[in-house]
Structures are given as structure tokens and as C-alpha cells.
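Can you make up a protein sequence with its C-alpha cells?

===
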Amino acid sequence: MNSLLERYHKEIREKLQKEMGVKNILAVPEIKKITVNMGVGRFKGEKAYREQAMMDLTNITGQKPNWRQSKKAISSFKLRKGEDVGLAATLRGARMWDFMQNLVMVVLPRIRDFRGLSPDSFDGSGNYSIGIREHTVFPTVDTGEVDKIKSLQVTICTTAKDDKKAHLLLKSLGVPFNKRKEELKEKK
């Protein structure tokens, strides 16, 4: 049992079924998709930066990301409607599980001064967002070719209906939450 997907189907799902008191194993929450976003910000006019961002996000996710356009014009940001403002890649299936395993076992432990993820980053519908300040924590990024550090956001969408079940799912998958903040949240 080397992959996270195999562990989920053979161990974790049955354990979650007992913990949650769910009768049908298909009602146990699972990960639906993972979306990885990277904004280009003030460098949106620089062709080299845009190409580097595209290459970095492709290396991180294992698939080619799509450009995201602005929905409206904001003059104070020198932004026009329809202008490319960021990149997004949506992962599903085996690629999603591989990314999740890489995130939990390799990337998060490599973050400097990492004390665990905040349990407050759930959205109320069972989805969890993680902000990563330096894209160089991913081992697939060649740090020798990096000229500017880029930040990105990872959103994990689950089939859980509430945050408590999504928290149990992510914790059982190995996501390291900040224990002190978890204890404070449980006391409330």
C-alpha cells in the first residue's frame, strides 16, 4: 500500500464510516477535486514572467493550467476586463490523488517554520483552502531557473456536507493541522 488512493479505499474509508456513523460506505466523504491557482499580479505584462509561471504551475500540477481573465475593469489596478490575471489547474482522478500525497508528505513538511495548517480555513461547505507563499517548496520546481518567487493557492473540494466531516477526512488523509488551534476550536 504505497499510494494514498489505495490507503483511502482499503483503510481510511472504513475507519471514517465507523467514526461518522454512516451506514453506506458510498456516503463517506471523499476528495472531489483539487484546484491550484497562481496569480500573475503586477507582472501580467511581462511575457517572460507569464511563460515562467505557466511552466512552474505545469511542473507543480503535472498538467497544463488555463489562463483566468478578469471579470471587470478596475482602473486603480490598471486592469481591463478580459485581461489575463492568473492561472488555474483543476486536478481530478489519479493525478489529484498523486498531488495530494505529494502535498501532504513532501511539500508541507518543507515549508519554513511550519507549525501545521489552520483548521479555520474551511468554507462552511466542506472545502479547504491552503495558501503557499513560495512555490519553490515543490520538488518539481527547478530552483536554479527561478527568478521571482510566486505564491499559489490550493483548494481541496470534498463531498462532505459540513466542515467537521471534511476536517475528519483531511486529518485521516494525513493533512497536518495545527493541534493548538484545533483544541481551541473544539472548546468553543
Summary: Strands lie at 31-39, 66-69, 84-91, 128-132, 152-158. The helical segments are 4-20, 47-61, 93-110, 163-172, 179-187. The longest helix spans residues 93-110.
